[in-house]
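#struct-help
A.M.: can someone run this one for me? Single chain, 555 residues.
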Amino acid sequence: MMSDNSNISNLRRSARLSTANNHSGGVTGTGTGRPTERPTPTTEAIHRNSESTDYILFDNNMDESSNESTVEDRDRRSIALLLLLYVLQGVPLGLAGSVPLILQSRNVSYSQQAMFSLVYWPFSLKLLWAPFVDTFYWSAFGRRKSWMVPAQYAIAAAMLYLSYSVPSLLGDRTDSFQPHVLTLTLVFFVLNFCAATQDIAVDGWALTMLSRKNVGYASTCNSVGQTTGYFLGNVVFLALESPDFCNKYLRNADLPYGLISLSGFLYFWSIVFLITTTLVWLLKTEPPSSSTADSPVSITSAYAQLLAIVKLPTVYKYVFFALTVKIGFSAADSVTGLKLIESGMRKDTLALMAVPITPLQIVLPLLIARYTTGPRPLDLYVRAIPFRLLLGLSFPFLVYLSPLVQIEPGVFPFFYYGLILSFYALHQVALYSMFVSVMAFHARVSDPAIGGTYMTLLNTASNLGSNWPATLALSAVDSLTWKHCIPTSPGASPGIPCSNSSDCAADSPCVTTVDGYYIESTICFLVGFVWLFLFRRQLLRLQSAGPRQWSVTAS
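D.P.: on it. Structure tokens below:
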């Protein structure tokens, strides 16, 4: 391992925050515990335009006299490789999004769900170690391969371990053998940490792997690949693992198991990671970095630059707003899907609801971008907040209605599925209005001299603003929920407080008398509107700040 003073533009690109951990796993609050907030072709284009000079710098060591067809063939192969690497990156994220739905059917507490939600944090925090990935490497092995290859081998090892241990780690669906949530959290945290590290390395490699002419396809590979990988690890896995789905659509036998198991799925992908990583290591050469357009910056200077950005008054005010604005959405976004499963909805049905919403998610950024390209992109952002808060207050109605309209276990009338899809579609409109607006604002205010680092820092604040309220909301549900042992025999004494059926006598089931989800949803709604009343004008006022107030170089 050797140290090298890296170009700061590479740091910016490799540290660029991807929100892949927030890919949708179905209706709001399922899968990852929060809704889809990910870069889209539109927002990626905004990001690229903000750093257009960085993208022009790299020419992949291309010989200008090379035959154009040779360059195109090489780029096609590189695009195929990038797409594969980003698909691999999305698979562990999708699996991590599936586990909460599986845990919900195994009697885990919401405090344990909150613990597991920590596995989504590495993608929001990767700015902290991205400078190391960009600065330290073994030159003989390759700048990006020095990190990508070990990271993917680590993912393969973790998946292989899980393939043998996950049956015991998940428990047996009874109170006598509870899932080992702490162990699952640690292993999946390592998986996502390695996936985030691989993302940093591949992001940087993508922009040197392709020729100048085709470098714009890097973000397309990122978006399409991560989405595909997440879909495979979440929606496809949950569908093929479900006995009901397989019996109804894929076979004529009525069997108590699906076509695949979580153990088998993990084992398959561990082998795919091992083979793919080995082939990339042996067959894909990485040309040495030869760009001299940027002056080299040490790792110390990179962190000093981040600190200088945070010290700007406009930035630390905005960071505060970004970290707190989503408190009002946390109950709806992180708990609703789990509550629907608790109320009888099948996890595969819930995950498959992401499919009809996908076209809307593709079109929305294109439609919204026209309203965020001016000097005041946060106007739309602020207007979407009350709409999203009101939707959040309506989700408890869906949860309350669920057991009332259930035809049989796991089966609901078509109007109820349509109702969920309608609410989810409206939620996506509000969510994308905020996401595209804030990405446009980040691109507008970032200091062009350090645009990538600047935008990554702002994106980090925005994503942490989703993560910590979600974890808090999950952890608070149990504290706000009241359960009692309800005696069934005549003349029995009134119920006593309980946490599960093991606290009660055999003839006294533990019954929820007050569901903390409804209390929490109301609190979040009120907190959200109080936040809007207190900080709306201050947030909008940041749009009027001049370039010098956002500039590190000017200060």
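A.M.: thanks! The beta strands are 2-3, 6-7, 136-137, 296-297, 482-485, 510-514.
D.P.: also worth noting: Residues 68-104 form the longest helix (37 residues).
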